[in-house]
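Inputs:
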Amino acid sequence: MPAVTETIETVQSVAEGGYKWGFETDIEMEFAPKGLNEDIVRFISKKKNEPEWLLEWRLKAFALWKTMKEPDWAAVNYPPIDYQDAYYYAAPVQKAGPKSLDEVDPELLKTYAKLGIPLKEQAILAGVEGAGESPADGRLPIAIDAVFDSVSVATTFKGRLEKEGIIFCAISEAVQNHPDLVRQYLGSVVPQADNFFAALNSAVFTDGSFVYIPKGVRCPMELSTYFRINAKSTGQFERTLIIADEGSTVSYLEGCTAPMRDENQLHAAVVELVALDDASIKYSTVQNWYPGDAEGKGGIYNFVTKRAACRGKRSKVSWTQVETGSAITWKYPSCILQGDDSVGEFYSVAITNNRQQADTGTKMFHIGKNTRSTIVSKGISAGFGQNTYRGLVRIGAKATGARNFTQCDSLLIGDQCGAHTVPYIENRCMSAKTEHEATTSRIAEDQLFYCRQRGLSEEEAVGMIVNGFCREVLKELPMEFAVEAQKLLQISLEGSVG
Amino acid sequence: MLKIEGLTAEIDGKQILKGLDLEVPAGEVHAIMGPNGAGKSTLSYVLSGREGYEITGGSVTFHGKDLLAMEPEERAATGLFLAFQYPVELPGVGNATFLRTALNAIRRQRGEPELDAMQFLKLARGRMKELSMPEDMLKRGVNVGFSGGEKKRNEVLQMALLNPSLAILDETDSGLDIDALKIVSDGVNALRGPGFSALVITHYQRLLNYIVPDRVHVLVNGRIVKSGGKELALELEAHGYAEVAA
């Protein structure tokens, strides 16, 4: 049965409401001194035992960053960020390779349990060797890389993936074990000087995931990274690099949560995807960083650069994102459609409730012939939330036969919120076609009444109507994520009606 | 079962119901007929709890409870069902999801166990067969792209599944061809029994050939001006409201 038909009953089970991922783990942490300078960049690089070229690469990025200005064109408002008033490295103090569950820091274990990561995986996540490489209950396994503040704590199912020649590990580990691959591709899609936040990330990135799928391999399981910000006054700067070699296929999921705090915390990630001939990458995100309280106090600033290069012929990259969290979201997962007949897709649901602000969308660069892109964006605004779709479709002169279809729908709940659509279309090719559709609607009173007459509470009714509104995007998510996403949509909108 | 006394209600400051009295005992089907603007739809919305109507006087008891004090969803759980004159579209929401969610919401409020997907499908398929509805209607979006007749049949399917003790049919016959009218009527008649009452609101006598009422009431200018047996409907058809109500 499709996950969408499960909607409301799963929602019932999470009726306790609020941001339930907002707890804090009390664990012994190691910090770099507060602030940002060359020494911190060197400290991080040293901590990670990095080769000289990578330190140079970071320092170059840092030098570039100092000359750059924070972008101000997005439709978001926030007080100036003091980049010297944050920690750029925070990691749980961990004994090397605990052998049994008893040796793992119990606080770390508890965190995983509370985040709802099943016990079997939990043993692996906490770094216990040899635990559960093949799940007994017959469910399709998901390999997980868990990033806790600045470091990856564990990656599961590595052994099984290695049999296929797949590399899935923390990027810091890849730097040690697969330096040539990292060096060849790091920064090749998002250069250091790409933008202010990408430059900052390039200088101080601490961990993230690295994936390499060899030629002709179809990755046998979903790969997933779970990002958790825990420490106070800490920025998270993760860097993810996925390379799909010729004819390979991979589906990758990303989830994120953080404790509830009064302060704003910065998350500036960079994700680079490379798809070679006939390769296909599906990248799904459920972003649930702490959004701040009802008055807009606290919450994560989510300033993220995500970009895919469809370098190969007939390559394909599909971005699916469900953005429910963060005080501010600034994010434009993009595709550079270089290879002839390559395909880029972007499916997005963004919710802003209370004082949340989101400025999100995509960029599709059509360079190769017969390149195709599809953009489906669903923005939901409630409370005082502000939601902007910002997108660019650029079709180059040589992209004959290129096609784009864009659909942007906005749903308003209440009369204090806002929805904005800013689509840019630049077409330099006579034979290319672009289509753009946009709608803005409200949840109608007659829809609510119809549902309530059938026995649904007002919140159930809103949840159901919103899930229906987002259906085209949710159906793109892998099954287990889709169920999770539907619950999140409901929780994110709690208190938005009545 | 349902008892309305001296009900007065207004919308946007305009009085629509002007002291309406009506009693529907358990197991009976009553028809309400009346000209345009008499307050027929207002009555159905006031009974089901739609916002925007101000109750200025009178009382309504339903199964001994104060109906007007309940939220719309509580009224539904207590057994009141409104078959809409214009069923609402819910884009992207699958009909099966909607029906099961509604059924389980009501079962939960009644303290009954909820049905899982398989149990629900079995139940729904059985009811659909009785109503000669194609099974693909479960897969489509709620009322999205449905013809007028399909929408009304979908209302009757929901009614059959939710099993109410009082169904209000608000001009369910409007926009139906004779075949659809027959299917819809059969659906209502199948529910008839000691635990099921219905308030059939209609302009025309035609529907009452299929759903034969125990009582007929004439609603004019916000009040019931005449009540009688099923023959009253024929009389109205022959002579018009003005003459009968005079």
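The domain at 2-245 of chain B is CATH 3.40.50.300 (Rossmann fold). Flag for discussion at group meeting.
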